[in-house]
Structures are given as C-alpha cells and as structure tokens.
Amino acid sequence: MIEKWLVIVNPTAGNGAAKKKWSLIYNELLLKNFNFKVVFTEYKKHSIELVKTAVKEGFTKFICVGGDGTLHHLMNGILSSNPINISELKIGIIAIGTGNDWVKNYNIPLNYKKAIQIIKAENIIKQDIGRITIAKNNEIVYFNNLAGIGFDGYVINKVHKFKNLGFLAYLTGAIVSLTSYKKPELKITLNNTILKGKTLMLLIGLCKFSGGGMQLTKDPNPTDGLFDISYIQNITLFTILSNIRGLFNGNITNHKLVNTYKTAKLKIEVGGNNKTFIQADGELIGSGDFLVTILPKAISFIVP
How big is the CA angle at 80 (ends 76 and 85), to the nearest 5 degrees? Predict the structure, then answer.
C-alpha cells in the first residue's frame, strides 16, 4: 500500500479555473505536508485510465481537482479496476467545476484551502453508488450523484454552449431545449410497478443536488441503499418558468406532475425512433435500454 496521495487535476474544469488555481492548490498541499504525486488529465475520460494505473501501483488515496465530471470518471476508474482492497480506498475533492453539485450534498466548501483542510482530516462516509448496464453493448457505468434518461440528457447534450454561464448553464439549457425536445416512449419497471408512456424524464438520484444546484428528487439519502426516483411524463415551459424557485428548493417534487418512488433496482426500455440520451453525473454515457442497480456503501469519500 502506498501512503502517498494521487492528485488528479483536470486543467479544463471550471472553464479553465483549475489550471489557473493549480499553483495555489499545489503550494497549499505542500504547506499542509501532503505526500503526493500529481497527474493531469489530457482528454475526456483520461482520469479513468490514470486511476486504473494508480490502483495497480498500490495507491489508496485520491484527490480530485475538478468538477462533477472529473469526480465521476475518477470513481469509475476505481470501481472498474475491481480492487480487492476497495474498503481502504478513499476520495477527497477540491471542487472546481461548472455545477459543483456533489460537494453541495456534503457542504464541502469551494474554497480550496478549506477543502484541503477537510481532506487532511480524512473523515470518511461510505456512500452508495449506482451501477448502469447499457443493454446494447453491456457497458457498465457507475454514478455517485444522479443519473437519468430523457430531457435531462437532452439538455446536457446542449449545455456545452452555455458553459460560460456557470451554474446557470443548466437552467438556460433546459429553457432553450424544452420547445425542441421530443418525448420518448419508455417502459420503466421498478419494484412491482410498470410505468409506461411518453416521458419527459426519469431521474435516478443518490444525492440531493444536480444541474447546478437544482433539487429534483424528493428524499435522497446517499447511504440508505435506495435510489430516489422522479418520473415526469409531461410538463410545460410555463410550469417550469413559474416553478423556478421550486427547482432549486426541492418543492418541484411535490408538484402533481412529478411522481416519486424509492427502489434499489430499475429497468428501462425505450420504444420508438427518438434517440434518448442517458446521463450519469452530468456526463452523457449512451442511449437505449439499460438496467440500474445499487452498490450499497461502495466508495469512501472524504467529507467534513
């Protein structure tokens, strides 16, 4: 086992903010007596490969310098390595991204000095992780915050155009996209229930925040072994605009058009010809039918 930390830096995170702040973060890590090795991601999903290599080399402590996407790929790198010592592995985060949604769930500050102080203390929480199996190629993708199919995936496909707006990028993308979105025909099997019909979106939540601070699932608990599901078949642009506050304070989940469920497993089948995007932690991962299962308390994250 290597006691050294592996620090994974995504220099493009936060519209390049990670690159600008890196020298300050580096000096703070030295000041706090961290023993660490630094690697920089050079392309999308590079952190998955970097982590796989590090796990083979015996690294057990990881620091993610980036946003929700960087954390998502880092965590996928760990789980796809199938480490036998997974209970010894831990992840800390210095959040520099567009949405920074996962850290909001644990009140991890965006101030890098405070985030490093939290990592130094090494207080951990063992969090549930979602496991998605995409039917057409049996690809497995893990998520630590929220996944979904339908409108949210469609928005993420568009949102890169609005990245310079920061957390408002997701809301802007949603409003712009609603008029052009064509709802897919979905069949969703969960518990003993089958939901069927044209669907605006299906959200599968572990944590509370997504889309730059929105709260779109009713009662998520990242350690209860259950997903928190929001299922919306139809909602108008007017309803969204008149409920913007509800998107951010969670009251939208009480709307009559939003159906909520708790489950540890669900199967999604897509009908019709409309291409449907599946997203996990704000990353597009594929389309078509998929199965979602939960891995209870699978990963140790460093939190306050």
Answer: 105
Beta strands in 10-155 (DSSP E): 36-40, 59-66, 90-95, 124-134, 139-143, 146-150
Measured CA to CA, the distance from residue 116 to residue 155 in angstroms comes to 33
Residue 254, pLDDT score: 77
Count of the separate structural domains present in the chain = 2
- pTM for the model stands at 0.91
Distance CA 207, CA 72 (A): 13
pLDDT value at residue 158: 64
Domain boundary among 122, 140, 164: 122
Query: Do 252 and 258 touch, CB atoms closer than 8 A?
Result: yes
Q: What is the pLDDT of residue 280?
A: 94
Q: For the chain, which residues score pLDDT lower than 70?
A: 1-2, 157-179, 236-244, 246-249
Instruction: Yes or no: say if 159 and 277 are a contact pair by the CB < 8 Å rule.
Output: no
208-264 tens-digit pLDDT: 998 777 888 999 999 999 999 999 887 766 666 666 676 666 777 777 888 999 999
**Looking up tokens 């568009």, which residue turns up?**
158
CB 112 within 8 A of CB 94: yes
Q: Residue 302: inside a domain, yes or no?
A: no
Residue 303 in domain: no
CATH number at residue 228: 2.60.200.40
**Angle at alpha carbon of residue 278, lines to 242 and 145, rounded to 5°:** 75
Q: How far apart are CA 94 and CA 113, in angstroms?
A: 9
Give the H/E segment covering residue 174.
Answer: helix 168-177
